[in-house]
Amino acid sequence: MTLLEKFLLSILFLLPLTQIINLFQQGALPLYILITIVVCICCYFFTLYLIKETMPLLLKAGIQGRDLHKPGTDPIPESIGIVSGPMYLGCVILLQIVYQIKLSEFNAGITSICFMVLLGFMDDVLNVRWRVKIYLSFVSILPLIVAYSGSTYVLIPKFVKIVFSTAHTAIDIGIFYKIFVTFFSVFCTNSINILAGVNGLEVGQSIVIGVAVLVLNLLRLNPNDASMDQEYARFSILLILPFLAVSFAVLKFNWCPAKVFVGDTYTYFSGMVLAVVAVIGHFPEMLALFFIPQILNFLFSLPQLLGFFPMSRHRLPKLNQKTGKLAGQKQHHNLINFWLRIVGPKTEKMLCIHILVFQAVCCVAAFGIRYLYREFL
Ligand code: UD1
Ligand code: MG
Q1: DSSP strand pairing (325-327 vs 318-320)
Q2: Contacts of 363 (CB under 8 A, 6+ apart)
Q3: Distance 125 CA to ligand 2 centre (A)
Q4: To which protein family does this belong (predicted)?
């Protein structure tokens, strides 16, 4: 790793770390976070070990792919999500046993994630048509939606209260809340999968969003608050820390030059974990803000996804073999090609760093929007 990459990675660690130290100083850091961190560090090293062991097995089974930006190289193992997914589930179930979590949503969330890992692996092995993937994503989120018994209220902005001169602070949108959450979860799982094609990008964006989710929930912790909100923040932290542990292990092998591809097993798994955490933690609107790059990429892609323009199997930038840089392609309507056409050709690693920095900027902006909304709107 270069100095710049190490610097950017350490910022990702420092953000939650400063909040953890802050909570320690206030005496507000519960013991469960420390135990969870220790379990997750073990999970990280175990995942690293298992990835190494699984790589030759995937190659032997023919589950492999060619790195399209490195012509002439041998195929490398694909679908390493088949290690990170089950490792994550094992770690979460272990924590659930330790903390005796009996919330039905928690179990339903685990079922949805499990379903999604299965679907992702099925896609990697069988190359399922994308319409079928969308239907199956709807089925995967159903266990959580059926079990969801939490609030379906949304806050009314201050200016709306003034305009309609109402004293209500929130409105119950009932079934529409569940419909929104269902569609949004399907969006999460598929949108990470299509902001892809550059080494480290799928897992990198998932980590940046995961860190933002962790910071958000650490900020929610308040020892003087006895409401259910604290439980939701606690569950979110328990669900996101193991996700970061397995994702960092995957990143170590997927960072440019990649030794493994994450496969759709990982992209679907990560999208579903983030959606489940947001539903159980009651912050889907904040997650939507963290997903701004994925929303932009989806909007750019929509004309091709809907068939208004022809779409090839891969919508990747073009490699200039002399310079080793990637250039944006006009016929591919997505964020990475659009970005390269603005900033000019970049190496694969630099392009990935650019998109990840943009992702981080969007997450910081999301916190800004939340603050402004609470203070003024
Ligand atoms: C999505 C994108 C597709 C993009 C692909 C890359 C849409 C609708 N689909 O398809 O345009 O090309 O992801 O993952 O936007 N690969 C690399 N380098 C990487 C990652 C992947 O060369 O860093 C190649 C490898 O050949 C690998 C293949 O992409 O085998 C994996 O593609 P897959 O994840 O199956 O593609 P989709 O998710 O269907
Ligand atoms: Mg994919």
Answers
A1: antiparallel
A2: 208, 209, 211, 212, 290
A3: 12
A4: Belongs to the glycosyltransferase 4 family.
Bridge partners of 64?
77
Tokens for 84, please give them: 């990170």
Query: How far does the centroid of ligand 1 lie from the alpha carbon of residue 113, in Å?
Result: 21
User: What's the CA-to-centroid distance between 305 and ligand 2, angstroms?
Assistant: 15
What DSSP character marks residue 313? S
Distance CA 69, CA 100 (A): 47
Q: What is the pTM of this model?
A: 0.92
CA distance 174 to 154: 10
* pLDDT tens column, 125-178: 998 888 888 888 999 999 999 988 877 877 777 777 777 777 777 788 888 989
Burial of 20 (0-12, 13-18, 19+ CB in 10 A): middle
How far apart CA 337 and CA 345 sit, in angstroms, is 10
Q: How far is 284 from 129, CA to CA, in rounded Å?
A: 28
Residues with CB under 6 A from ligand 1: 65-69, 78, 193-194, 196-199, 258, 261, 264, 301, 314-316, 334
The residue whose CA is least distant from atom 8 of ligand 1 is 194
Q: Are 170 and 155 in contact (CB under 8 A)?
A: yes
Q: Which atom in ligand 1 lies closest to the alpha carbon of residue 311?
A: 8
Confidence of residue 26 (pLDDT cuts 50, 70, 90): low
8 A C-beta contact, residue 254 and residue 200: yes
Q: Which residues surround ligand 2, an ion (CB under 5 A)?
A: 193, 264
| Dist. CA 163 → ligand 2 center (Å) | 46
